[in-house]
Amino acid sequence: MSEAELVLRSTRVITPEGSRPATVAVAAGKITAVLPYDAPVPEGTRLEDFGDDVLLPGLVDTHVHVNDPGRTHWEGFWTATRAAAAGGITTLVDMPLNSLPPTTTVDHLRVKREVAADKAHIDVGFWGGALPDNVKDLRPLHESGVFGFKAFLSPSGVDEFPHLDQDRLARSLAEIAGFDGLLIVHAEDPHHLDAAPQRGGPRYADFLASRPRDAEDTAIAHLVAQAKRLRARVHVLHLSSSDALPLIAAAKAEGVRVTAETCPHYLTLTAEEVPDGASEFKCCPPIRESANQDLLWQALADGTIDCVVTDHSPSTADLKTDDFATAWGGISGLQLSLAAVWTEARRRGHGLEDVVRWMSARTAALVGLSHKGAIEAGRDADFAVLAPDETFTVDPAALQHRNRVTAYAGKTLYGVVRSTWLRGERIVSDGEFTEPKGRLLTRTP
Ligand SMILES: [Zn+2]
């Protein structure tokens, strides 16, 4: 251990082989060794002993809408990355829409990177966007280091980011397959949405009926068929409908290159508990019934769903009106995602090893960040220190994201993040932040 600058010790270190007492040696921002708990620490080496608090790899959240620049009053890099750090997240990948400009050309990517550079408290990467008219921009964006491309199959909610019809989807996906890129998709079918009853108003039951499961199921079926035909790599974003799970499982078994994610709100909140008019619970696709939620958990356990990401998508509070049809759709989850998922996971008999697999290892793998997502030699020294059996009650005033609207207000959650570490430096500890130390990430070719 002679070259270590820092040594972290815990009786519970989550490694790819499981949880065990260990000592983790760090030098130059990297993990150099994972050693036995009682490994001798050379004199003069800084030792941080976390006792029985758990040392886990920093989470990698591949689905975050930062909205900066252009809608920074909704969310910006400074506030989003602080909220993430406070929640144990050390890497996020920013979605291409809701900022102005959207990340749909190399020039726009440059603008985004300039804005993020000195505000990032954690590491930040970028998705590109696939629009009906930017097929020619996809390869240059790929070569500029975006991690893949997002497309909508139904209206996105903002005019500057139009959706792809089936022909345009085929064209964009063929282009992306040409350089073996990744297409990530908001999968709701617009025809099924149009055919659903659109009553509007404050009743959650009416909103749920307006975004039916078959809109998701049909869009995913189309996507899987295109991926199969083109041998392309696709990823289903924010899966909510459990009815689509057999289709995804069958496609995977057949060798179609498809992965899927779900979100903390689908896993921890249910349609039955959403009060009428409470649009802080509005997102698309919607939070569904508790029986649906049980099947999502089962799919996580059996690997049909690969990972869990926040889809943190805030707006100003005034856009969260009590009419579900017109209120902004998006749930702010960065700071609470680990605690929310862990609380429900432990109730259902899952371990923290599972949570780490879904929220760190698999998300890092999704975007090819081979130096993130695990506590093992050679990876970045990114960690969260968690008191897993300690509870807290969610107080919106304690949240770091810009507009403190939350669907979790008043909930009691397990799992207090004591500190978060980025490349061997403690970036937040008991609510105290350092200056931003995040870096901007590009896809590894
Ligand atoms: Zn999203």
TrEMBL record:
Q: Which EC number(s) are documented for this chain?
A: 3.5.2.5
EC primary class: hydrolase
Q: Name one Pfam family in it.
A: Amidohydro_1
The cross-references to Gene3D superfamilies, in alphabetical order and at most eight, read: Metal-dependent hydrolases
Q: Which GO terms describe its molecular function?
A: allantoinase activity
Q: Where is the Amidohydrolase-related domain?
A: 54-425
Q: Give the similarity note.
A: Belongs to the metallo-dependent hydrolases superfamily. Allantoinase family.
Q: What is this protein called?
A: allantoinase
Annotated organism of origin: Streptomyces rishiriensis
